[in-house]
Design goal:
83% helix; 0% strand; single chain
């Protein structure tokens, strides 16, 4: 039988050593944007659609829903966008294998930033907004796959530790995005500022 490689046990100082590496923080940012953005939008999608396009969804569902059940329509469209990000994650990894992880992140993050700015600055009709959100989620999902194509290349000997550290950053990114969108709605009665701030963070990640 083939010999099984057993890595040496990691110690607490190994974590601190990685946290002193600037690349660790860049990867944290990449995952906070990709996975965190996906989780944040997934968690807030229904609220966003209800607050922004309630009238359109009532019209859309008027044949089979009453206004009290418009949340069902928001849930359907939100699920559609979430589905895009979930199923396209392996596609992102495959694209990264062909183009390289860094180049693919430029494409995915660049697309997300552009679409977020469009959503923030243009009063999109309901159908166009769904398409934009669908594409944002799709590109975040693919960026997700691209990040984990890169992690073993940079941190092959510390993949276990890095998976934990980067995973934590993704969870924090999702929470931060939900809070940012909620703050934007409360402070400015709209989501434009929240989307702009998200786009800025994505552009910072591209700069890495």
């Amino acid at each position: 039988p083939a010999e099984v490689y057993t890595p040496r046990p990691k110690k607490v100082r190994d974590y601190f050593k990685l946290l002193r590496d600037k690349d660790t923080w860049w990867f944290n940012l990449f995952y906070a944007v990709s996975f965190g953005g996906f989780v944040g939008f997934a968690g807030y999608m229904k609220v966003y659609l209800m607050n922004t396009y309630q009238t359109d969804m009532v019209t859309f569902g008027s044949d089979f829903l009453n206004e009290a059940n418009v949340k069902v329509v928001a849930g359907y469209f939100g699920a559609l966008c979430i589905f895009a990000g979930a199923v396209l994650r392996p596609v992102g990894g495959a694209v990264a294998d062909k183009l390289g992880g860094v180049k693919s992140l430029y494409v995915f993050f660049g697309t997300v930033a552009l679409l977020a700015i469009i959503n923030a600055t243009v009063a999109l009709p309901f159908a166009a907004a769904i398409i934009v959100l669908f594409l944002i989620m799709a590109n975040l999902g693919m960026a997700n796959g691209a990040v984990f194509q890169l992690v073993p290349q940079r941190f092959g000997k510390d993949i276990g530790i890095m998976t934990g550290i980067i995973g934590a950053a993704g969870g924090l990114g999702g929470t931060a995005l939900i809070k940012t969108l909620g703050w934007s709605k409360g402070a400015f009665d709209g989501y434009s500022v929240g989307f702009i701030l998200f786009a800025v963070v994505v552009l910072v990640a591209i700069g890495g």
